[in-house]
Amino acid sequence: MTAAPPLPTAGASALSLDAAVDRLGLGPFQWRLLAICGLTWAADAMEVLLMGFALPGVSAAFGLERGSPQATGLLTATFAGMFVGALFWGWLADRIGRRAVFLTTVALGVVFGLAGAFAPSVGWLALARFLTGFAIGGTLPVDYAMMAEFVPTRWRGRFLVYLESFWAVGTVAVAGLAWWLSTLFDPAEGWRWLLALAALPGLVGLLARLGVPDSPRSLLARGQHGAARAALTRVARANGTALPELPLQAPPPAPRVSPVALLAGALRRRTVLLALVWFGLSLGYYGIFTWLPSYLRAGGMDLGAVYRTTLLLALAQVPGYLLAAYLVERVGRRGTLAGFLAVSSVAAFLFLLAGTPGAVLGTSALLSFALLGAWGALYAYTPELFPTPLRTTGMGFVSSMARLASLLSPSLGALLLTGQLAVALGLFAACFAGAALFAWLIGIETRGQQLRDSALPEGGA
């Protein structure tokens, strides 16, 4: 557990929430919260990437042609649901609190994920995937707001990258599960087992979440001072520290909680630039990785080798996260994000030039490493740029732009299978380069800064 900062001076009349969270230090509560949110985040990664692994089996079961509109639609359905869900659940979490959405989205994700395994037709499967996406679309804004609001200032960026690193755990898990099932079942049957088993980690995550209190920042912003203090007391008890006997400083009146408020005044610039970063990174990432198993299969690999290769690429993500976790605290969020995006752009061009199986594996591993480092930095940076009353709304809005890009990426990624590799990878490399530029143009560094509880003054940075 980290050492607590000094107590407020004797003349202090109220305790700010940042001072309270910093005073309670880093301890078992935050590590437990990381494990709980991380488990669900890994489960969400499995669900998001699932159809890329299940598609060969689904195509065999329902007679879908490679790159057909129905196959592309199945890949798109989850992202369409996430687009709607990110906007809805992020807004709702700022209105009614983080915890209710924290629990509801996971429960619905499990139900709809299991329903897909029993789908009798492509249409029913697409509907189940849309509803699964709608549910898990709320996990992103809520989990990152919760983590940001419970972790002391000096550790916040690192913990947000740690949370994002569970995406690699989910990627490894779904690739390993798909590989294992491919040895047990015919593809036309194995995809149903894949969908069913991938939904179960979310159930474990739901049970673990029942013991997590609501965010004290969200409670205080909604006028629930007693509940906010009770939540902080639980943190203090878990960490073996004490909450000073001072009233909590009330935040200023909350602005209107809607996406419209994000595009007003000084928040407009950062919201627009962040949305462009999320859009560009997502378009390239999902455009490549949702079709990568099918691309490798089309190149002559057997299904087991495809899954083993994808597993290796998922493992390449881990050092990307570790480096991002180090750099966001040493270099800063903005520089780390822009740097990883620039490397991703270069790696996409190198992937295009690769002419041997070894070169393809090496360049795709570099691309996987750089892209997931960029995602880690982006998830650390984004929640710190929005004030508390708009934090999950802001996370939901910019992540919905990523889901919008995800709706387009399967169609663009299909170019990988139709002989237009240069067009596809050139476009994705341009997306990463543009996202790097937009990240740098945000012009704000949040490393070591306390979370803002009020909207920015008009004309502020």
Structural overview:
It is a single chain. The protein is built from 19 helices and no strands. The chain is mainly α. It has one domain: Growth Hormone, Chain: A (Up-down Bundle). The model is unreliable at 1-11 and 457-461 (pLDDT under 50).
Q: How many strands, which pairing sense, and closed or not: the largest β-sheet?
A: none
Counting structural domains, the number is 1
Give me the secondary-structure category: mainly alpha
The whole-angstrom Rg is 22 Å
- The CATH superfamily bears the name MFS general substrate transporter like domains
Shape: globular
Residue stretches low in confidence (pLDDT < 50, at least 5 long) are: 1-11, 457-461
The first-level CATH class name: Mainly Alpha
Remind me, CATH topology? Growth Hormone, Chain: A
- Series of secondary-structure elements, N-terminal to C-terminal: HHHHHHHHHHHHHHHHHHH
Annotated CATH architecture: Up-down Bundle
SS field, number of helical segments? 19
N- and C-termini, Cα separation: 35 Å
Strand segment tally: 0
Beta content: under 5%
- Work out the helicity level: over 70%
Overall average residue pLDDT: 82
Features:
461 residues, mainly alpha, Growth Hormone, Chain: A, 19 helices, disordered C terminus
